[in-house]
Backbone:
């Protein structure tokens, strides 16, 4: 069975913005960067579980809206000097549609 | 591609700091080689005094160990002195024959202690106080010998003397003049210091000029010009430093007292840069660390080919690193004909403070015994702040200007390690000290990044700065006067704003391109600022960028710690009606609000609303005639009112009515930070108008207009702007004042600090005295309000695509792990 799930059109995510995918085990935040790369991470900041999807995206980084931790979207890790990590999920864009693989990468 | 080669001569603090700044900006740009004539990595030279006194070890003051050089791919030739520079072949050569070619050369050769050339100065046991070798020599002497003489009663001499005293030597300080530390202290403070040091056991010989040093092989005694003598087994000369310029001179670079450099730290050979104590910039040489760090930043900037930084010289301040003695001085502390002084002296408590003023600005300060406010005075001095409004409280310190918002503890040195310094982030003094020592931090910014202390509300900034000063030991690196807007650029808020106006820039992208932003999308600090600056400069042309706003302004509600939102509909002037209350009650039930709370701004807040429900909540409120209260924005928040003459037996004017008119005029306007207004119907001031950004206090004969109040982190009562006779005038002055603030304050600067920065006189001049300017400000305010007074709730609730963005893009039933 394919583990890839189609989520929706890339255009449904604003540039430098985010949308949420709801799952039975918690929200996943989908981000679209200015270069049209799409990243998926668990929507919980490693600091105090802030919703990363509500943060500001710049480069491949999102700033948590609660206490401004910066999370690297490629690895899910907090940028130093902060320490911590959130799960990331593999994504790909096919014919304008965003796909996600819910196995933790 | 082959990389350019950068060679650094001098492995000290200034040179290595330059490399660190360079690595931050352009990590892979150069192949870097460092020559240092000491056999160590880079260490913190200003902490040699505590090493001498036994409070620290050499290991504790190493800033960059050998691993650091390796990790950054830097070749270090340690213990190797460079003896020549061949500028034509661009090559340097060290004593042992090693040569390195360069495409850029950085000289940071530092300085040497000046050794007075009296007979006998070459004897064993006569040394300077400059490096680890000198400290080792002093420590060794203290184990074998008893009597030490320190020549020079300046900063360094006293620190050396104190260190030797701690090592149980019998120490005499010999000083040419009649007061100690004459370059940092006035006579009163110097006398207090001398008395204090005498009580600790130091001896002083004042107005004594050394004629010769006697001894056979090792020093035995000193003779003075007046014929008297004193025994000595160790003589430490600390009478000043000389920039090390021989190498530069030898290769034909222009030198005077130091190696002459321009504002980009380049010598007369533009391939060769110089920083630190060896340079002379605009006729001045520096011997403290803060200026060196400022130079390092500019030099690195230029080496990285971001040619926008300029070094324009430094104002320095001093602290003595002798444990238990609190002493601070900065600027012109002696005063002259054009200056005046405020002096406070309490001999019994050992406290002396002098502030030197010139034309209502701080020119200099000397503090002895209580240096809590040193950092603050220094800030006022560097920022050239007009202090006329706080003159009476100036002597009592920043704490007296207003309640600091958290516990009154203020003396950093006296705090125990477990005392909480930053109440927002729960950071103790011990945490801060530990981070400073272990991570080698020098600036407030560094401490903030690593510990989060003072990173939230900022009210403990002064205290954190003091702890930094106490820990680093003295001339720690103070923040630059003009700060870059953020780490993505070196331009300041004002630079950016001026460029936006001059070049008619209407998008964030065009600002970033014009000013060579270092990051493609900026960061969460600069994007909101740039967005604000373009829409405030060009309200008709610029388009708001929602993705550059903090979530609250994007979601038009306030995010809470659990990720839900709170919603506040506007209540004009704090007045509501049964139908509005009914609509609020209905919404609270329909959307399962978990808390309903009356706010401080006279409105009602619904908590626990889910993001996907927001557009529906708004649609319901719109139906009942209510609009967004902007409780989430850097914008006009509320106009608080009391009931005034319509109901109150004391009311003098219709304060509620005026409040509603003001709110209808100003709502929806974006401002640098939140903006609050209040109107009180009489001087009893029930609406608390005197702690608002703009406050009106009605009196029988008209309206008193107040500005720049704040009830938050630091309580600040307003300044009286003026008194007007009519409501129309009150509205016009309000609009003009708000527009001036919108056009000129930095993003995230409330009216209170802005007013303190630019001065009440400036605001009065712009808004009161210059009627033409007031009218044009008011006109611009109304013009931009034409487009701003739209309800963002209605716009989103009525737009399907916009509303959809508030909901999940998809719900899947596969569990994610």
Residues:
């Amino acid at each position: 069975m394919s583990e890839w799930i189609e989520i929706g059109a890339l255009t449904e995510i604003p540039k430098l913005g985010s949308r949420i995918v709801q799952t039975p085990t918690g929200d996943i935040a989908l981000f679209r960067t200015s270069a049209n790369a799409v990243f998926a991470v668990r929507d919980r900041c490693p600091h105090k579980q802030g919703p990363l999807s509500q943060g500001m995206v710049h480069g491949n980084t999102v700033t948590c809206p609660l206490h401004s931790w910066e999370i690297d979207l490629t690895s899910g890790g907090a940028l130093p000097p902060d320490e911590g990590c959130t799960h990331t999920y593999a994504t790909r864009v096919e014919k304008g549609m965003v796909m996600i693989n819910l196995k933790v990468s | 591609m082959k990389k350019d080669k950068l060679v650094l001569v001098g492995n000290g603090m200034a040179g290595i700091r330059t490399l660190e700044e360079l690595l931050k900006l352009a990590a892979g740009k150069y192949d870097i080689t460092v020559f240092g004539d000491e056999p160590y990595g880079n260490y913190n030279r200003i902490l040699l005094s505590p090493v001498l006194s036994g409070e620290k070890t050499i290991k504790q003051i190493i800033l960059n160990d050998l691993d650091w050089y390796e990790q950054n791919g830097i070749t270090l030739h340690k213990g190797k002195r460079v003896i020549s520079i061949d500028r034509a072949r661009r090559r340097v050569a060290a004593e042992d024959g090693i040569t390195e070619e360069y495409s850029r050369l950085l000289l940071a050769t530092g300085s040497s202690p000046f050794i007075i050339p009296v007979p006998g100065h070459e004897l064993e046991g006569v040394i300077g106080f400059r490096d680890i070798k000198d400290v080792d020599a002093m420590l060794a002497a203290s184990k074998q010998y008893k009597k030490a003489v320190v020549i020079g009663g300046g900063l360094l001499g006293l620190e050396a003397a104190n260190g030797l005293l701690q090592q149980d030597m019998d120490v005499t300080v010999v000083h040419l003049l009649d007061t100690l530390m004459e370059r940092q202290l006035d006579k009163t403070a110097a006398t207090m210091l001398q008395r204090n040091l005498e009580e600790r056991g130091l001896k002083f010989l004042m107005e004594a000029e050394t004629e010769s040093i006697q001894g056979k092989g090792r020093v035995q005694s000193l003779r003075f010009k007046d014929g008297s003598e004193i025994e000595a087994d160790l003589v430490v000369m600390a009478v000043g430093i000389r920039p090390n310029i021989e190498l530069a001179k030898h290769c034909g670079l222009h030198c005077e007292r130091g190696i002459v450099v321009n504002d980009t730290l380049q010598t007369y050979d533009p391939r060769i840069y110089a920083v630190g104590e060896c340079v002379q910039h605009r006729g001045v040489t520096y011997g403290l660390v803060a200026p060196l760090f400022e130079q390092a930043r500019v030099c690195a900037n230029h080496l990285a080919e971001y040619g926008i930084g300029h070094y324009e010289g430094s104002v320095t301040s001093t602290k003595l690193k002798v444990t238990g003695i609190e002493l601070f001085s900065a600027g012109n502390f002696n005063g002259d004909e054009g200056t005046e002084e405020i002096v406070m002296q309490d001999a019994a408590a050992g406290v002396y403070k002098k502030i030197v003023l010139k034309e209502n600005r701080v020119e200099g300060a000397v503090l002895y015994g209580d240096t809590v406010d040193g950092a603050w005075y220094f800030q006022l001095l560097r920022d050239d702040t007009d202090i006329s409004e706080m003159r009476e409280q100036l002597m009592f310190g920043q704490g007296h200007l207003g309640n600091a918002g958290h516990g009154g503890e203020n003396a950093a040195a006296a705090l125990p390690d477990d005392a909480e310094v930053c109440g927002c982030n729960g950071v103790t003094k011990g945490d801060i000290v530990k981070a400073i020592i272990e991570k080698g931090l020098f600036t407030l910014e560094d401490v903030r990044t690593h510990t989060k202390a003072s990173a939230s509300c900022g009210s403990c900034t002064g205290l954190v700065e003091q702890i930094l000063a106490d820990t680093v030991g003295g001339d720690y690196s103070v923040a630059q006067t003009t700060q870059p807007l953020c780490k993505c650029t070196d331009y300041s808020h004002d630079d950016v704003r001026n460029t936006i106006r001059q070049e008619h820039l209407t998008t964030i992208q065009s600002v970033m391109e014009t000013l060579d932003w270092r990051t493609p999308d900026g960061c969460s600090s600069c994007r909101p600022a740039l967005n604000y600056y373009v829409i405030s400069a060009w309200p008709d042309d610029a388009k708001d960028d929602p993705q550059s706003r903090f979530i609250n302004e994007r979601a038009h509600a306030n995010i809470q710690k659990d990720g839900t939102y709170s919603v506040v509909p506007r209540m004009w002037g704090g007045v509501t009606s049964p139908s509005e209350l009914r609509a609020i009650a209905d919404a609270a039930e329909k959307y399962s609000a978990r808390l309903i709370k009356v706010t401080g701004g006279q409105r009602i807040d619904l908590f626990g609303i889910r993001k996907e429900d927001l557009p529906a909540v708004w649609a319901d409120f719109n139906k009942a005639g209510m609009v967004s209260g902007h409780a989430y924005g850097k914008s006009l928040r509320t106009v608080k009112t009391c009931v005034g003459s319509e109901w109150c037996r004391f009311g003098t004017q219709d304060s509620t009515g005026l409040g509603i008119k003001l709110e209808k005029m100003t709502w929806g306007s974006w401002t640098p930070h939140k903006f609050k207004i209040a109107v009180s119907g009489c001087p009893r001031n029930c609406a608390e108008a005197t702690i608002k950004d703009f406050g009106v206090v009605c009196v029988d004969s008209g309206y008193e207009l107040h500005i720049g109040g704040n009830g938050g982190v630091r309580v600040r009562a307003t300044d009286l702007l003026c008194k007007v006779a009519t409501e129309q005038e009150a509205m016009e002055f309000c609009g003009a004042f708000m527009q001036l603030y919108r056009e000129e304050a930095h993003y995230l600067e409330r009216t209170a600090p802005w007013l303190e920065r630019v001065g009440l006189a400036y605001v009065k001049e712009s808004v009161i005295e210059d009627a033409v300017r007031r009218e044009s400000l008011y006109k611009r305010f109304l013009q931009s309000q034409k487009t701003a007074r739209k309800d963002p709730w209605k716009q989103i609730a009525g737009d399907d695509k916009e509303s959809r963005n508030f909901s999940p893009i998809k719900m899947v039933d596969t569990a994610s792990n």
